[in-house]
Amino acid sequence: MRFDSINFVFVCGNSSLWEHDSLWSSSKPGLTQCFKRTILNWLPTIFLWFFCFFEFLRIARVKNKTIKWNRHNFICVILSLAYIFLNDLQFGRILYKSEDSITPVDLHVPLANVASLTLIIFFFYYHRLLGIHTSAVIWIYCFLQTITTFLITCQTWIDTQNNSTFEFIIFNFQFGVILSLLIVISFADGPIINVEYLATNEQVDVQSKHLIPENEVSFLNQLTFWWFNSLVFLGRKRETTIDDLWDLPDDSKTENLHKSFEADVSKAKRGSKTNINLVLILLKKFWGYFVLLSIFQFLIDILSLFSPLFIKLLINFIEKKASVPIWHGFMIAGAMFIVSCIENLINAQDSYLHDTIGEKVFAIICASIFRKSLYLGAKAKKKVSSGKIVNLMTSDSQKFYSTMFSLNTLWSIPVRIICSLLILYSELGYSAFVAIFIVIGTSLANRIISKRYKRLRQEHSKINDKRIESVYEILNSIRIIKFYAWEESFIKKTNKLRKEEMELSRKMTYNDSLFEFVWTFSSSMVSVGTFAIYVLVQGGILTAQKTFVSLSYLSTLKSDLGYFFYEIMSLRKNSESMKRINEFLNLDELDSYVTRYVSEYDISVENADFKWSKKRKNKQNFLEKSQDDSDEDLEDLSDGSDDSSDDLDDSENEEESVSPFYTEPDLKNINIHVKPGSFVAIVGSVGSGKSSLLSAILGEMEKVSGLVNINGKSKIAYVSQQAWIQNATIRDNILFENPFNKTRYEEIISVCALEPDLAYLPKGDKTEIGEKGINLSGGQKQRISLARACYSDADIFIMDDPLSAVDAHVSKHLFNRVLNSESGILRDKTRVLVTNKLDILSNVDYIYVLNNGRTNEAGTYQELVNSRGDFYNLVKQFTFTSDGQKSDECSQVINKEISLVHNEGEITATEHKEVDKDEDTKTGRVKWPVYLEYFRMISFFWIAVIVISKLFSSCSSLISDIWLSKWSIDHLSSDFSPNSVKMRLAVYAGLGIAQGLLAISDSLVIFNGSLNLAIKLHQNLLFGILRAPIAFFDRTSTGTIITLFSGDLQRADSSLLQSTLMFFDSLVNALSYFIVIFVNIPLFIFVFIPICLLYWYIQRIHSSLALQLERIYSSAKSPIYSHFSETLNGLNTIQTYGATDRFIKKFSEKYDRKSVHSIARSISKIWLHMRLNFCSHLITLFVALFVVLKRESLDSGVVGLILTYALNVTRSFSQLVRYPSYIESNAIGFERLLSYSKLESEADWYKGKIEPEDSWPEKGSIKFDRYETRYTPKNEPVLKGITAFIKAKEKIGIVGRTGAGKSTITLSLFRLLEPSSGAIYIDNYNISDLPLHFLRSRLAIIPQDPVLFAGTLRFNLDPFSQNSDNDIWSALSLVYLKDYFTKIGEDLDYNIDKDGANLSVGQKQLLCLARALLKKPKILILDEATAAIDLETDNLIQKTIRSQFKDCTILTIAHRLHTILDSDRVMVLDNGQIVEFDVPKILLDNKESVFYSLAKDDKLI
């Protein structure tokens, strides 16, 4: 329908609103007076008065801030007044006219403008007063007013006859003033000055907070992210650091967000009996932002549908040739460019709002999970493991976040589909619906394929998890694996898992190939089927307009339908993550059954029963285990594994094995009363419930019955058996956020025997402690933990066997200076001590003896001895009498005995930090040799095949498009016939089939090409890591290595090749697009080159910043998960000290740093894509302009093709810029893999200078010949030229103070440390000349910490299957475990959990003894093997060793000297030298000997 003329008599009088001939059909278009004075004037005015409501709301919210009068706001007011003045003149001029010539619109226009500018002046005033820098409403109004005024002014230039001189002057001045005002408000107003500060006459530091500048720049600046330019150019000049980024505003800080969220949760819980729904609360909290995101999404969807319509208009314009004015074409091209730019701007704002609000939502989720994990109740703790909690924060929270922000797709995609269908129906009629049926059919087919893929993916994830667990287990037990020479077995096990993983990857690739074929083939079939019905059934003619418009919308329809099905499946899948998080946040919190009444007792437990969980216990397995110190590694957990879903793991610190038979409480009928200031000891055998009792007192178990009371508001300090150490300085660990008191601090350092350690360390107490205290010995960690408790100045001290990790001298010092009721610093405090050291019990006030979870006996030491019960038997059997003398010798020698701890195998904190620093701060680009090595590992043959396959795919697509272009103009040919249509259709369908087959070829070729790489890379990495010397594992965190085997390996396996091929695809597509354009529009190259240079310049200045931000962001994530892991590890300690709120705050601070980096990274990407898209829109604009200029020589088919390609340039160019950064990011991972595959290795496993007979060593003699070794070339020697000869079958005890070099003897014998000079000879062979595995396999060791692996009992004892079942059962019988495993009923296939979690410490140590029995060695090393177990298990081990290893040479390193008193000789080490080496009796007879002093401290004499 065409309106030749539209009149608006009531408003405009005789002037028409619209004259078609004078405007649309004229080569010089002219607007009517009515149109100019109504539409052009009303448009900005209506906008201002409609949206001014939001400006009033904004003014009402902002308070207490002001901006000084300055040049900017002064000019704004002056220009507004000038515009009002000009409109007043115009109004006055109208009044002087004859009344007959005045129309209502003549009066409305100036009055409306005056009212609008008056309102704007009002806003300017309050903006200045309230510190508002800019206004979107005012800027858009001025922009619209400038455009409309310009159009009116242009008419005064064109149509001079119908405009008076006065109108010419007025309109031109109005345009100049409003343009000036637009330019001025395009810049922000001045800095903020806080009124509250001014009132106190204090100087305001506006730079005190380095806030994000977004809120202090103009609307135009915000719209284009111009404010980010400064950071981009800074990144170009130098490396960007964390300090260059901004602070978060208060409303975006995690702590504030979480507090607000908690308030919302509390409100939701009020009056509600159901669990809270996290999604509903978050939607309610951020509903305004979600509405705005929906508006943005709607606008983007609508604007994205315009491009094909513009192509249609341009094709129509070309077909009409010279019959329409050329300015029509320019207008269409301009409109297409403007719409694309508006879509680009809205898209950028949508992405920014999505990322910033998403970061807030993510922060709330993570903070809520963290806070909940600190307050979980005893029952709830049993339902979730640390691994599951970390997975909730990493994997599940990410899916939760993705799901929330994909809710818009549920309505936006259907809207786009409906709009596309309506347009297709208008073009092709009912044949448009054929596309729907084809797409739905192929989507259903793909869904069937996807189900199989999902199953394969789940299997693949499980195998991948097993492989990572295997690697993690290897790293945690690397010393034992090297001691036993088991590397080959674990390499075989891990490589087998890798091969299974690759086999599943092959099946997944076949599945993907089928998926790609169906999807690619359906893309062609959608258009083939639709066009076939249209031309063959409907009898329509396929013109260029219909072809390319329909093709665009068919493509949109297909992708939208596919994406919609994908989103539905993702929502279903991710809803499980939402469910898991909701369930976790609704778990019961800590139910503090511990009362706080004022009482005569500091601790009261009356008639109480406790249990760990509702899970039932196996009575046979009711044996206590020490606390588990091997948590899930965070890097492993955060690498994307989604295996957290439904595991209800056993408590990580649970003390009993789980089995389905026993239902009694773990602790029964407990009665304990601890008086203020008393010293109470709790003793008992393994599994008696000692540690559980402490947990019950602290409120961490489930109370079945009874009463637990802590006196009043008494502060509690807790020292766990496995010392919990933070990744902080030694001082920070001791202070634990308490105020620093120098006098008290130095006293605590002294009594906890830490002075010599601090003197030795390079930075003293400012030395940074590594991950899990990696750079400290066990004794040091325990003393720091004890110092923390002492410094807390608590009233009650609960200690779980803190003396077990230190030597006799240190133990005596700590007892006398800290615990003793007469001389200890805690003498006036209440002390509850769990201990296995029976020799100190005579010095405590009261003793409780536990047996099978009951307080079997209680009383003073003398009372229990006189009662002749279980306690008396223990004392009689395992202790020696003491003369009761208290020697001062310990205080005199304590400095000497602990000053050399560094030599005992630990690395210094300085070294540890330097290694981490090197890992984190690699800079620069990946070098070309790395890429060449990558391609070489794939093989250049496969690279060539892959490239050729990709070229064929791209060529088939290009030929298909050209064929369709020619088909679209067939109807214009004189020899056009129905047969030619069928031929065109058949060829087009054939090309579609070819594209589908080539898609299959691509997938198969790429996988087979990368398969060799994946297997080689994993083998080389695993071999390189396991061949590394032991010092490498000391200085490299487990998380770093796990990342190599997970994230980095995955990136090198597939991501790097995929991103490279995607870049190649984009490059080939872009080249094909431009070749088609250049062939038809050769002059375009003169525009193309400058735009390409602009592209290159933008990408270049951005790349440096992007790389640095990526690295900063990666480094910012690790501290969050490290803090989370650290907190979970020390949860008992944190809760006992009442530090949960402080740790939540610390988490928030760490998360805030990550949020800043995440937002900066997001803005960086938005900034880049926005500018690159603008360049792409310029290309589209110039192609359209050249098409308009060449309309006489171009046919409509070619125009449709080149315009479609011009629109596709945006996507291709965006990928060309984006993928190089992806390639480099993935190549960094490959570079790391290469470097770790080529680590410095230890000696050859299988070849040596000499190869003895298999029977070696036949005797077992050992000779040290001036032997010297050190841990690193820079360190001082640990063993200093020691010389000694140990005869065959001799039993040698090795003793010495901490740091003397005892454990270094073990490392040297197994060549975990190589000599710096001298040699060790075994049966006259220099062990340095032997093959490494040959040497290690001939020695046996029972280590200090028993290590078991996840797997069968048989694998743990004999991983190479070298022994028969009878041999294994015989070994188990000799270590008193045969009956235990026989009763379980699974024989040698009994499954041992990770770290032997389903066995007690004693049982694990006995299994280690069984390993040694199976090896039948001639030399056995006992490295403090009984230091951490009870005396009963110790007795069993000693009994077996004496009977079964009587023909072996035995070297025993021991804390407890009674275990080596029956040795043939004792070697006493001090400062890395042998100071005494003789028969124990001779050494004990010499009261001047070091051994005598050690024995005296241990109360053996």
Automatic annotation (TrEMBL):
Keywords: ATP-binding, Membrane, Nucleotide-binding, Repeat, Transmembrane, Transmembrane helix, Transport. Residues 629-657 have a biased composition (Acidic residues). The chain crosses the membrane at residues 39-57, 69-87, 107-126, 138-158, 170-188, 286-306, 326-346, 405-424, 430-449, 514-537, 940-964, 985-1007, 1071-1098, 1171-1189. SUPFAM superfamilies: ABC transporter transmembrane region, P-loop containing nucleoside triphosphate hydrolases. Residues 621-660 are annotated as: Disordered. Residues 291-573, 944-1225 form the ABC transmembrane type-1 domain. It comes from the Eukaryota. It is found in: Vacuole membrane. Residues 651-877, 1262-1496 form the ABC transporter domain. GO terms for cellular component: vacuolar membrane. InterPro entries: AAA+_ATPase, ABC1_TM_dom, ABC1_TM_sf, ABC_transporter-like_ATP-bd, ABC_transporter-like_CS, ABC_transporter_C-like, ABCC_6TM_D1, P-loop_NTPase. It is a multi-pass membrane protein. Pfam families: ABC_membrane, ABC_tran. CDD domains: ABC_6TM_ABCC_D1 (cd18579), ABCC_MRP_domain1 (cd03250), ABCC_MRP_domain2 (cd03244). Gene3D superfamilies: ABC transporter type 1, transmembrane domain (1.20.1560.10), P-loop containing nucleotide triphosphate hydrolases (3.40.50.300). One of its GO terms (molecular function) is ATP hydrolysis activity. Belongs to the ABC transporter superfamily. ABCC family. Conjugate transporter (TC 3.A.1.208) subfamily. This is Uncharacterized protein. It comes from Tetranychus urticae (Two-spotted spider mite). The lineage of its organism: Eukaryota, Metazoa, Ecdysozoa, Arthropoda, Chelicerata.
